[in-house]
Design a protein that fits this description.
Layout: E1 2-6, H1 11-22, E2 26-31, H2 38-41, E3 50-54, E4 67-70, H3 77-80, H4 84-105, E5 108-114, H5 141-161, E6 165-170, E7 173-174, H6 185-194, E8 199-202, E9 208-209, E10 212-213, H7 214-226, E11 236-238, E12 244-245, H8 246-257, E13 263-266, H9 281-287, H10 295-309
Parallel strand pairs: 1-2, 1-4, 2-3, 4-5, 5-6, 6-11, 7-10, 8-13
Antiparallel strand pairs: 9-12
Helix pairs in contact: 1-7, 4-5, 6-8, 6-10, 8-10
Bound molecules: nicotinamide-adenine-dinucleotide and uridine-5'-diphosphate.
């Protein structure tokens, strides 16, 4: 197949492009390099089945493809809050442009949605039926509400136009090729530990997250895209249900790197969700998917990546 990956030069996108090429597909990677990097896909450039396009998804584009993975959107709070209006445009206009293309060429399309659609959840763990608890006017809203509208568009293009759509709600994912200045907690703690800096724990560090290693996530994305299961247009959570406080994560990163660390507490950002953990029953039943790489094992691989690639 010929497969388009928007946001393909980013952290998750680059792993996905690699996986799809390994399966023998033609891959078109589309990116505007806001948070993506050419170095992430540099080793794919020699492959004649790989094509790279510099393009912004807020603008229309016409390509003949069989499948579209729509990943283009900054994912880290510091990056998506840098230009919040652009973040909304990327999610909403990006979805409209990619759905329009899917409709025109009859491609199957998958949207990278997020656990942020649950906001600061009052139901724990979060099943797909939960409507969420989202602030529509706060600093995270550009991302959360942008992704929620994108889900709405996916459902409406499916109902109104019969487009073959899929929505994955991705829970915190980590691994090699995250940016060292990405700002998300796993890369921050690893980079700080390797540099002998204090670890920046926001708030008292009792808030929880569930961390999925990138290879597990990519496996889930590919299975979701290719299943013929019934009612597959409804969202599917993909994430690792192991739940950790940020204090526990700090300790685990330090022990993985074999370093002593000290902690610096900084203010908790506004609307920071207090807890998050996926209910993955649906992914398990429909896709036979569950994560295979625990946090300890994934951190070993990620620490090794940063130890090799950053200046300490
Ligand atoms: P990332 O920032 O590394 O990748 C996003 C990519 O999209 C980058 O290459 C960036 O340059 C590109 N991009 C941004 N705006 C664009 C635009 N207007 N036009 C074209 N390209 C654009 O982030 P990631 O972690 O790889 O996330 C990939 C997708 O998965 C995003 O849609 C994100 O919202 C979603 N997601 C990720 C996580 C996670 O924990 N990593 C969790 C939930 C959802
Ligand atoms: N966080 C932290 N220190 C950091 C970066 C993040 O304590 O240096 C916290 C943040 O407040 C949140 C959790 O880690 O509670 C996960 O943050 P991240 O930005 O990785 O993802 P998200 O909040 O989008 O889940």
């Amino acid at each position: 197949m010929r497969i388009l990956v928007t946001g393909g030069a980013g952290f998750i996108g680059s792993h996905l492009c690699e996986r799809l090429l390994a399966e023998g597909h033609e891959v078109i990677c589309l990116d505007n390099y806001f948070t993506g990097r050419k170095v992430n896909i540099a080793r794919l450039l020699d492959n004649y089945r790989f094509e790279l396009i510099r393009h912004d998804v807020t603008l229309p584009i016409f390509l003949e493809v069989d499948q579209i993975y729509n990943l283009a959107c900054p994912a880290s709070p510091i990056h998506y809050q840098y230009n919040p209006v652009k973040t909304v445009k990327t999610s909403v206009m990006g979805a409209i442009n990619m759905l329009g293309m899917a409709k025109r060429v009859g491609a199957r399309i998958l949207q990278a949605s997020t656990s942020e659609v649950y906001g600061d959840p009052q139901v724990h763990p979060q099943p797909e039926e939960y409507f969420g608890n989202v602030n529509c006017i706060g600093p995270r809203s550009c991302y959360d509400e942008g992704k929620r509208v994108a889900e709405t568009l996916f459902m409406d293009y499916h109902r109104q136009n019969g487009v073959d759509t899929r929505i994955v709600r991705i829970f915190n994912t980590y691994g090699p090729r995250m940016l060292e200045n990405d700002g998300r907690v796993v890369s921050n703690f690893i980079v700080q530990t390797l540099r002998g800096e204090e670890l920046t724990v926001y708030g008292d560090g009792s808030q929880t997250r569930s961390f999925c290693y990138v290879d597990d996530l990519v496996e889930g994305l590919v299975r979701l895209m290719n299943t013929e299961a019934e009612d597959i247009q409804w969202p599917v959570n993909i994430g690792n249900p192991g739940e950790f406080t940020m204090n526990e994560l700090a300790e685990l990163v330090a022990s993985t790197a074999g370093k002593e660390v000290s902690i610096k507490h900084l203010p908790l950002p506004q609307d920071d969700p207090k807890q998050r953990k996926p209910d993955i029953t649906r992914a398990n039943e429909l896709l036979g998917w569950s994560p295979t790489i625990g946090l300890e094992e994934g951190l070993v691989k990620t620490v090794a990546y940063f130890a090799e690639t950053i200046q300490t």
